Each structure stands twice: as structure tokens, then as C-alpha cells.
Amino acid sequence: MRNKRFGFTILLLVAYTAIFETWTVFSPRMVILSAVVTSLILTGFFAAAQRRKYFLNRWDVFGHAAIIADIFLEGILIRDHANRSFYLCAIAFAVVVGGFRWWLMGRSECQVAPAKARI
User: Fold this and answer.
1) Mean pLDDT in the chain?
2) How far out from the chain centre does Cα 68 lie?
3) What is the DSSP secondary-structure string of 48-102?
4) 28 Cβ partners below 8 Å, 6+ apart?
5) Which pLDDT does position 85 carry in this prediction?
6) pTM (two decimals)
């Protein structure tokens, strides 16, 4: 049976906001280094979640992977992290990835539930 909790999704949300918050005070070199390290650590957690069958389908996998890729790419490509607009991105990720996951869980429970026999 698949894990139907939001543990890894919440971990990504916390890691996303924490790393972007620290980037507001880091030097550009530290931003790049922390982006690589954070992405590697989160990829390890991602692989563990996949082994435990955390993800509900390929789109769920893609949504979570996109958050890790965003951390990596923004840390490498974007030089100025002085603003706090990343909170809007975190909210968008939470709504899209979390909302989609919640919707999928509701759908799968309806489809998996055994039909009642009518007499």
C-alpha cells in the first residue's frame, strides 16, 4: 500500500523556504555551494521516498522533482536573492503539488474502495 501522508512534501516546502531565506544573507559563492549541497541532500530524500512508494503517479514525481530542480537552478543561475518573493513561489508549489497530491489521494481512495454488494 502506498504511503498517503504528506511528509516528503512538507519536508520540501520547509527546505525550500529555509534555503531561500538563508540565501538573502549568503555571498554568491555560498549560494552556489548551498544550492548544490541542498539539492544533493533532497535528491537523496527523494530517492528514499520513491523506494518507499511515496509518489502516487508520474506527475506527483515530476512535481516534487521540479521543486528540487528549482532550488538547484535558482542557486546556480540567479545572482540576486535579496528579495522575499520566493515566498510566493513556495505558496504556489504548496498549492499545486500539495493540492494535486491531495486530489489524487481522494480519487484513489474512491477507486480502491470495494463496491458493496447489492442483494
Assistant:
1) 85
2) 7
3) HHHHTT---SHHHHHHHHHHHHHHHHHHHH-----S-THHHHHHHHIIIIIHHHH
4) 79
5) 79
6) 0.81
